[in-house]
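Q: Is it fine to ask for two folds in a single conversation?
A: Yes, each is treated on its own. Send the first.
Q: Here.
A: Result:
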Amino acid sequence: VHLQNCDVHDFGQQWSYDRVTGLVKNWRGVCLDGAERLIDGGAVYMRLCDAGSRNQQWQLADRAAIAPELNRQPPMAPFAGSLYCFALMIPRSYEQALLTMQAESKLSVFACDAYDVVSNESVAIAGVPALGIASDLHCDKGGEFGTALNLDIFLLVWQKVIAVGRYKAHDWTVKADPDSVFIVDRLRDYLRMHRDEASEPMYLNNCKYGLHGPIEVMSKSAVDAWGSGWESCRAFFRTQCDGHCWWGEDMFVDQCFQKVLKVRRDNDFRLLVEDHCEPPTGWQACSSSTYVVFHPFKTAES
């Protein structure tokens, strides 16, 4: 949403207001959404109209009538909720070096309220033993987009994370790649706008092309739904694809949540910037104050 000089001929400035529902709708049929309504200066978006969403219930009134409201101090920003984060690591690789550096500096997943590293060997990162899975961590590339076909590996990872159960003590679960520059405090800021939905199954989509794996953010109940429902998703898609769909874990999760488990999906494209999602020019400098994750950077120096 942008403020511009008024132009009665600009369709982008033509709005309708429904006094019953409080919806403010533009000529394309999407509505004004105060997604960060509890944050002073919070962001406003255009989203599909939802009369049940408090973020879309607006009141138009004479300025004099609402003067007391305008003079009130804004409410304190809500608590974003606690974070449980984890990363999968290939031992004796650049990933181990990156995670060691991150742990020593308390960056990335190690800046979350609780965290784990998952691997296929008994290794420790900064003295913390990794959760072990039985896999050689090898996968081929293929499918429509030539991406890593890592679904089977990550199903083992998710099963281990869910079995250990540390995520249950936290509002949000975050999977991050070791080569992601992951700014945790920025994610906490953005999760405030989703705080009301944290108690229901929901996840954040990070790219206009669909969920990408460098960072995946889910509510606790979405992880519960995923843990109990992924097998039904696999059976469903094997029927739909007449066998293997040749998807990576991120696309499988996205499709599973949308088409089978019916988990709420909120778009927040501030979560990720990378080559595979039409990044802005110069994004590799990591100078933007917008994005939560910059991906990929495979050395500590970079």
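Q: Second one now.
A: Result:
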Amino acid sequence: RIASGRRPAGAMGLLPETLCGRDVDLLFRYKTPVLVSIRDRRLGIIHLVLLIAIVAYILLYEILYKGGYLLVVAPAGGYRFSLRVPTNEVGCDPITDTACFPDLAPLTATPYCSQAVALGDGCPSGQYKGAHGSCLEQRPCQLVDELDVMTPEGSDTMLATRVFQVAQSPVCATEETSCESLWRNLPGSSQDTFLADVERFTLLIDHAAGDSSGATELGDVSRNMRGWLYVPDNDATCKRLADAGRGVFTDQDESQATDSAPCYVNSALAAADNYDVFEVRDWLGAANLDLDRPAEAWNP
């Protein structure tokens, strides 16, 4: 829309009507916005509803619900296990510390070992009373360290508690084209033994998490984090850890100490550089499992 009118008198009146063949008013025109007020209740309500919907969508959905104001990055993590034989001092390493040495229970005092004597638990000879009160078969035990117990299998780790060994000799000669049996067990060579005191071996779990993209410095390792081992329904595990001074509480706020389940146990062990370290029996106890339970009971 172009508005024009009578040119004012004065200095501006000295301007020519045209300049280079073009109207001077068109050459020096300027634009200004025009506001129009529409008096219609229906359009006004629709306009207001749309404004509220837009604000609600941005504020409630995009910002608050989806966290649009946050920087979202994909996490990356890793973990490792470390098994160690019981030692005379908590957290010491018998490989690097000459004052550190294994502290395994004597076989004569280990109930599930056939070397144990005078158990007096009411079970027949050759048996011992398990954690659940039933009499279980004893077997010969052997003393081993963590190198004999822990076997990595891909991303998993196997802890051996019982070993069956047998010596064999080959039956088929190399030139044979078919054989009914490849190996023959040597008489009297089989050994079926328990690995003694495995339940008291300490298992360290070290884990870390961080930003996989590297765009931020978010991330840390487990020894700098605050963690808990939750024991939902195993009173014996809670009491054993409480007696060991591990910090056992009814909740994660440490509002009240306890020695019964359910309990939260501070997982950081100061003597092990604040790593998450517990005995094997404690890790199992948190899941309400133990080594005396039949194998079929582990996967009901």
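Q: Anything structural to flag on that second result?
A: Two points. The chain is about 15% helix and 25% strand. Residues 41-65 form the longest helix (25 residues).
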